Amino acid sequence: MVTMNVLYTSTEGNTKSFVEKLKTVAESNGNVLLTKNIGDETEYEIETAPYIAVVPTYLTGGTGTGPDVTEIFTNALGDYIAYENNRQFLKGIVGGGNRNFNVQFDLTGRRYAEKFDVPLLFEFELRGSIFDAEKVYNLMKPLFGGES
Ligand SMILES: Cc1cc2nc3c(=O)[nH]c(=O)nc-3n(C[C@H](O)[C@H](O)[C@H](O)COP(=O)(O)O)c2cc1C
To answer: What integer is the mean pLDDT of 7-27?
Structure first.
């Protein structure tokens, strides 16, 4: 049995729905997926085990990808990862978004992967599908010591 940890944030519920799909897939394969929703009111904790982070994109400041375009709503998750040594246990990012945002699709996921120097494992739209969840499950399991 493999235990996997997921940190995520979700303003409108789409990312939460995707993480629940991931949990369903993990449990149907006899494994455990522990989730933690990080929001503005979450107390910082020191992480002591590997995790992946699932983050949607909300931006302000324009339509491009330059430095003037900054994240809103998701900052608490980024700050949590940057807290103390938490980033050392981050194994990868899964980014959510909406392709209607064109070049800004999943920009926060891409930025987190670069900032924390971990792979961007997968990008999904809105609530994602069960097929997306299966792909992410197969990509993340080896990061937690499971067979690929
Ligand atoms: C105000 C607003 C701005 C958004 N900006 C982006 C964006 O820049 N890029 C993107 O890929 N998706 C963008 N989205 C889409 C969200 O990332 C998408 O709906 C996501 O599934 C929301 O996740 P949540 O329901 O877990 O909060 C935006 C949505 C809203 C409401």
So the answer is: 98
